[in-house]
Amino acid sequence: MTRRGSEHALLPDLDRIADRLRTADAAGELREAGPGDVVDGVAARAVARPTTVDGVAAVLREATAQGLATVARGAGTALDWAAPPERADLILDTGGLDRLVEHGAGDLVVVAEAGLPVAALLETVGGAGQELVVDLPPARLGGGSTVGGALAVGASGPRRLQRGALRDLVLGATVVLADGTVAASGGKVVKNVAGYDLAKLMTGSYGTLGVIVRAAFRLHPVRPTRRWVVASGPPADVAARARAVVVSQLAPGAVEIDRPAGSGEATVAVLLEGQETAVVRRAAEAAALTGGDVRTDPPGWWGVLPDDGASEAVVRGADRTGRTAGRGDVGPPAARGVLAKATATLTGVGALLTAARAAEDAQGIGVAVRGTAAGVLHVAIGDQTVERRDSTLPGELAASAAPEGRGGAFAGLESMGNRAGEAAAVAGVVRELRAVAPSPRDGTVTVLRAPRDVRDAVDVWGPVGGLDLMRAIKRRLDPGRNLAPGRFVGGI
Known about the structure:
- The chain has 17 helices and 21 strands.
- It has helices at 14-24, 53-65, 118-126, 138-142, 147-152, 160-163, 166-169, 198-202, 235-246, 276-290, 312-316, 327-330, 349-363, 395-400, 419-435, 452-457, 467-477; strands at 29-32, 38-39, 42-43, 46-49, 70-73, 90-93, 100-104, 109-113, 130-131, 170-176, 182-186, 211-218, 220-221, 225-233, 254-259, 266-274, 293-295, 338-344, 365-372, 376-385, 443-449.
- It is 30% helix and 23% strand.
- A hairpin with a 4-residue loop joins strand 7 and strand 8 (109-113).
- By secondary structure, it is of the alpha+beta class.
- The protein folds into four domains: 14-96 and 473-491, Uridine Diphospho-n-acetylenolpyruvylglucosamine Reductase, domain 2, CATH 3.30.43; 100-221, Uridine Diphospho-n-acetylenolpyruvylglucosamine Reductase, domain 3, CATH 3.30.465.10; 225-299, Alpha-Beta Plaits (2-Layer Sandwich), CATH 3.30.70.3450; 338-460, no CATH class.
């Protein structure tokens, strides 16, 4: 179901916007919105597709002057993450800004426009034996996820453990603010906004502070040899083994944990990269430390979001940068429930895994956890039902006490078709996971994607530190709340 966001939404003067766009950017386009021009259930009224930075500035300047709300869109692979905007009068499609501006192979730097697909950037720099260590999930990478979109959602993948998240790799960015001001910070600076590191400020802000139009990134040489060490066991034990690897001298490229929904076991996978002799030796040491086996290929779930349903063939079919040949290689994702992002301290990951199983017992819906052992994980909730463990009954009696055909009680959730009951169950899971981390310093659980009824039943952001400061920055950069209003925490 789509909605307009407000019965009092302003009607855009499309002729004025089109005139401003044509004057600044002859190749730019403006059209009325179609059925597919929706931002997480909120229908837009028009779509602008500029091809230059000046074109973006002209569109935003006029749209803001008209009091319109503008939402930037890349490939749309994460457009349903975070909160829906209060309104979306205008979608600003960055697909026309798709140029790779500069690749300084000798300096390990690349500069790209926001609408360039990450896969295209990886292909270009890969020809020089280099890579941008972003590790997007295959479904997003194959779906055309763009440079600007990856920055806007604060993307990171398995190798953030050693190389950092995308925000740590961005050297500078050029941004257009709501009033049409073009500002930049960091590498390749044209004009600074005093006091702000715009590149890092925009990363993870979901387009609520400005529209990213260009960014510079630090690259890394591709390491020639890779090995994975994989071990399974009880979740608490696996978390302890993963933690031992993280704090060891093995210098792992990544340490990932996967705990499937309804499972009593978890798996840890350790990535070692580098020169072959050293990698083989370190892999043997990691195998001895974890009790795992050494492999030349990653496990099928590696780098895949827990609700994407990508097969092992998808991951094996990607090259060493994580690229796939195109959208067709990924295939449609499985039916998905709620996706959340959980952070924890290094010692708190085990407690998070334990809480996931306890939440399944209490709520009767699946809770899959996957991500880095250093404490940045994704959680898929409600994509399947699971049997409830009843500690007061023997196994046979617990099964026989369940409703016919269920195989186990669903913790009072009589039907997954009962939307109110499902939303309440998801809210219960989120509460139990958040209880593991009593403060934002200990960890957070943020609901990234969920149906409307689930969002109505749960605080999708949870406790957040520094909210007053974030609101002050929003007022400074977008005082009229014209950029994706309401998409970010605290209604920013």
